[in-house]
Amino acid sequence: MSDRRDGTPEASLADADADAGTAPDGGHAAATPSTHTVRLELVDEPGQLLAALHPIADNGGNLLSIYHERGNKTPRGRIPVEVDFEATPERFEEVVDALRSEGVNVMQAGTERYAEEVTLLLFGHLIDTDLSDTLSRIEACESASVADVSLAAPQGTEEVSSARLRLEARAGETDAALAAVRDLAAEKDLRVVEPLTGVEA
């Protein structure tokens, strides 16, 4: 069940709102703040949500709401969190850069959506080569996000297995995402089967 603020101390949200109103350099005062949404992927550990909020508040974001999807985990077993906040366009870019600098996986930022989708298959010793590491490294490529994973290991985890990956890529960056997967597959001696673009499966 989803829940607002998800146990985040009231003081931290209030402080973030107060900090967001300041513009010490005066450079952003002329721009009109607008509402932005960032969709984050957080490890399910205490303090992770609060740590992700600091870059928003520290860079002038005025927090409006937090949607913490406890019952819906990403393919890597992490929790998606949607944060709405007000900021000028310049401040918004600074917030997103700060989040990524802190190692927070930003799955979606404002209107920056993963507009392209591609499904591919990986074959090989997926378990022995650490499937979790494989997914994490694909996610580390800023061009794409792993939307869904389906693993099949009919002969057991010690034998060759396959995984169907559905990737969501930013507009125009599907090739870069696929290149990252190919490089990783070559390193781990995995085989990649890619779909033909523009053809219905």
From TrEMBL:
Highest rank taxon of the organism: Archaea
Disordered: region residues: 1-32
InterPro entries linked: ACT-like_dom_sf (IPR045865), ACT_ThrD-II-like (IPR044561)
UniProt xrefs under CDD domains: ACT_ThrD-II-like (cd04886)
Species the sequence originates in: Halorubrum coriense DSM 10284
Name the UniProt record assigns to this protein: Amino acid-binding ACT domain protein
Low complexity biased stretches: 19-32
